[in-house]
Amino acid sequence: MVERKKIIIDTDPGIDDAMAIFLALQSPEVEVIGLTTIYGNVYTTLATRNALHLLEIAGRQDIPVAEGSHVTITKGTKLRIADFVHGADGLGNQNFPPPKGKPIEQSAASFLIQQANLHPGKVTVVALGPLTNIALAIEQDPEFPKKIGQIVILGGAFSVNGNVNPAAEANIFGDPDSADIVFTSGADILAVGINVTHQVVMTDADRDKLSQSSGKYAQYLCKILDVYFSYHHDSYHTKGVYLHDPTALLAAVNPSLLTYIEGVVRVQTNGIMRGLTIFYNTKKKFGEVSEWCNKPTVKVAVTVDAPAVVELIMERLMNS
Ligand SMILES: O=c1[nH]cnc2c1ncn2[C@@H]1O[C@H](CO)[C@@H](O)[C@H]1O
């Protein structure tokens, strides 16, 4: 039997995070060995509470939750929280009861380092929020990029407009300094940006299909999806929602659902372009020595088999 890929989901739940977490638990190719939490869609304290709650819904309280950073890597406390996308509670304003479980004592960064040391080269981190925890792991252990198997990043807007403003995508905008540290760390990185996830849409008809399923995840998600659908109807005038986090999760499960290009990625950390992700294909050798030279390359998703991805997400969420 093929060994299941060990994954840690770094998450800010979040409605599409909830979908991705359930999808991971429904994917026989992977074993979820932990969740780490971060601010983004909600503040970190609420992200931890929601992560514990979602694991209780799944009956998977055996999976540890490690709480992540409450501030950016530069100790910034003015965070941009996307409660207008996910509801004030992050889960569609459903006022779920507080979870019974507690996070483990370890911080997210130290849990990431510990797991990378325990299973060198074997752990995939699926990063669904700002990249602070992973940058902290790199800061605390410079060997972390070599020991972690792969980091799949949901983030960036490669050659397209962002979703926070024309320059920046939300997860990169949340902590651009961390993003630049992670992208240039030398780790095996696969980035899935909104240039790709905006092609993966759950339509109103798909949601109706989900609501007719008796699967426990399908039933739960139909309760929380209203807020996410309303936001997309109002902001994008689309008849459906973007499946950002589930698409990134599937890139970790089965990378062949997407295609990639390889090059250097740098992140703008200040000014009106703060959070901009720039991809350099390294074909042109520039004469000048600069911050682009001799940087490690990463893989950036360019196309996705959207129908196959949507079908797999629907199938796995309905058969639960
Ligand atoms: O318009 C938006 N502003 C802020 N965050 C968003 C928006 N749309 C989606 N997300 C959240 O940020 C990630 C993708 O950028 C996704 O995790 C999604 O939940």
Automatic annotation (TrEMBL):
Q: Where does it live in the cell?
A: Cytoplasm
Protein source organism: Nelumbo nucifera
Question: Which Pfam family would be a valid example here?
Answer: IU_nuc_hydro
Q: Its domain of life?
A: Eukaryota
| Protein's name in the database | uridine nucleosidase
Name the enzyme group at the top EC level: hydrolase
> What family classification does the UniProt entry report for this protein?
Belongs to the IUNH family.
Keywords associated with the record? Cytoplasm, Glycosidase, Hydrolase
Is Nucleus set as a keyword in this record? no
GO MF annotations for this entry? Answer: inosine nucleosidase activity; protein heterodimerization activity; purine nucleosidase activity; uridine nucleosidase activity
Domain Inosine/uridine-preferring nucleoside hydrolase, by residue range, is 7-310
User: Which GO biological process annotations does it have?
Assistant: purine nucleoside catabolic process; ribonucleoside catabolic process
Is the keyword Hydrolase in the record?
A: yes
Q: Report the principal subcellular site.
A: cytoplasm
Which reaction(s) does the protein catalyse, per the Swiss-Prot or TrEMBL entry? uridine + H2O = D-ribose + uracil
What taxonomic lineage is listed for the species of origin? Eukaryota, Viridiplantae, Streptophyta, Embryophyta, Tracheophyta
